[in-house]
Sequence to fold (77 residues):
Amino acid sequence: MPYLERHDAGLRDIVQRGLVLDAERGTLKAWIYMKEHGVSDTVMLRVLTRPDQRRLSDTSALRSARSDGLPLRYREG
Fold:
């Protein structure tokens, strides 16, 4: 079951960007980005390895980034 929405907008934005990085450039890049921005190991482990336990806002942000229908890793640019 997805977690409730985050009350900390800054953390929400960092995690969402981390998930997009994960899809575009891989888990290591996402982990490093989130670690450098103060996201706890517990949160990083949950969002990067357990998609079924992501918050609804995280899942929605990732879907929006994939709006062209192609996996993010395969986009040109």
Q: What stands out?
A: Residues 9-65 form one domain. The first helix runs from residue 9 to 25. The radius of gyration is 12 Å. The mean pLDDT is 78.
